[in-house]
């Protein structure tokens, strides 16, 4: 296994570094210190042809001309917070609104657009990069000096592991995620409609027109949200089911069953590539790139809806306002920790090598 780094760009006078992690099977994972962002995951298809399977750019400047959070670490709080307001211990806080009447993904210029400190490490069984960031008290209205770390690692089992930690000196909210978009075909001009998705969940969160959760959990049985046994993503994209038509696909949290099964599995029948996700979080947000348009480009071509799909591991969105969605309050003296692992292989169990 090996790690290399290169200068990837310049942002506000600071050097943007890209780290390239390669395991003994040739699987490659590239990340940069801008936004602690995943740039690339390169794995072979069933015929041995290698390609990147996550949406990202080969040139840094392209990241400054998009708002899709491609591969970025998102925080302090992933997803929407209703009206950008919340209370902790009787103290009211107001965040800037950057998504209609709500705050989304921590507000403007949040984790995804910061230069993180970074260190590489090499162990006997895995290699990686550790990023850390100090988010000062009052940043985007959030209380507390928050110290956050996210560690990317790669091993010879073809596993990409994300480990999050955080501490604070005041009670605050914390619910990060990685906003990775998968397209397992390796051809970003293709859509992900025929990808097969399995989710270990019997309930999804109903959303409003603005994407904010209503607080209602709906049983997936008999709906296009039933991925308990695997189904093509297009069944929801072309469905007349009201929650699908609302967003032209999926932009919904699934409450995980939290048992010994994988949290989610995504596979592309054509290429044979498969990714299996497990997480300590209680939810996975599935977004099918419904908002992609010709105003954005990928591989030099205008984008179109449904060219990628996220598997965002996090606690349920807007949890601070809904019972049963989980606790996202971080308090002084407590350490936040969470893990998510993505395992890459061939759907026919051919080892990635």
TrEMBL record:
Catalytic reactions on record: alpha-D-glucose = beta-D-glucose
Keywords: Carbohydrate metabolism, Isomerase
EC number: 5.1.3.3
EC class: isomerase
Pathway entry: Carbohydrate metabolism; hexose metabolism
Source organism phylogeny: Bacteria, Bacillati, Bacillota, Bacilli, Bacillales
Species this chain originates from: Sporolactobacillus shoreicorticis
Protein name: Aldose 1-epimerase
Source organism superkingdom: Bacteria
Family indicated by similarity: Belongs to the aldose epimerase family.
One GO MF term: isomerase activity
């Amino acid at each position: 296994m090996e790690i290399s780094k290169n200068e990837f760009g310049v942002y506000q006078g600071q050097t943007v570094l890209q780290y390239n992690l390669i395991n003994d099977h040739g699987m490659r994972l590239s990340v940069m210190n801008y936004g602690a962002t995943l740039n690339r995951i390169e794995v072979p298809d069933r015929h041995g042809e290698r390609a990147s399977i996550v949406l990202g750019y080969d040139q840094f400047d392209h990241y400054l001309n998009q708002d899709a959070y491609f591969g970025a670490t998102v925080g302090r709080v992933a997803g929407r917070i209703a009206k950008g307001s919340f209370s902790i211990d009787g103290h009211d806080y107001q965040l800037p609104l950057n998504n209609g009447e709500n705050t989304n993904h921590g507000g403007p210029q949040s984790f995804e657009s910061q230069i993180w400190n970074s260190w590489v490490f090499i162990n006997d069984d895995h290699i990686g990069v550790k990023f850390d960031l100090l988010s000062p008290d009052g940043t985007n209205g959030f209380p507390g000096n928050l110290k956050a770390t996210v560690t990317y690692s790669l091993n010879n089992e073809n596993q990409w592991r994300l480990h999050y930690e955080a501490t604070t000196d005041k009670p605050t909210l914390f619910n990060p995620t990685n906003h990775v978009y998968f397209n397992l075909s390796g051809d970003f001009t293709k859509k992900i409609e025929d990808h097969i998705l399995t989710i270990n969940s019997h309930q999804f969160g109903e959303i409003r027109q603005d994407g904010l959760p209503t607080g209602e959990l709906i049983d997936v049985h008999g709906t296009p949200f039933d991925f308990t046994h695997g189904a093509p993503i297009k069944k929801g994209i072309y469905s007349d089911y009201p929650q699908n038509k609302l967003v032209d696909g999926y932009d919904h949290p699934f409450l995980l069953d939290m048992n010994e099964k994988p949290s989610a599995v995504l596979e592309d029948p054509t290429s044979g590539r498969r990714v299996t996700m497990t997480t300590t979080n209680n939810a996975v947000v599935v977004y099918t790139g419904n908002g992609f348009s010709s105003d954005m480009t990928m591989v030099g071509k205008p984008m179109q809806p449904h060219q990628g799909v996220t598997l965002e591991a996090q606690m349920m969105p807007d949890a601070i306002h809904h019972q049963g969605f989980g606790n996202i309050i971080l308090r002084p003296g407590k350490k936040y920790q969470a893990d998510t692992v993505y395992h890459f292989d061939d759907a026919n169990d051919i080892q990635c090598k």
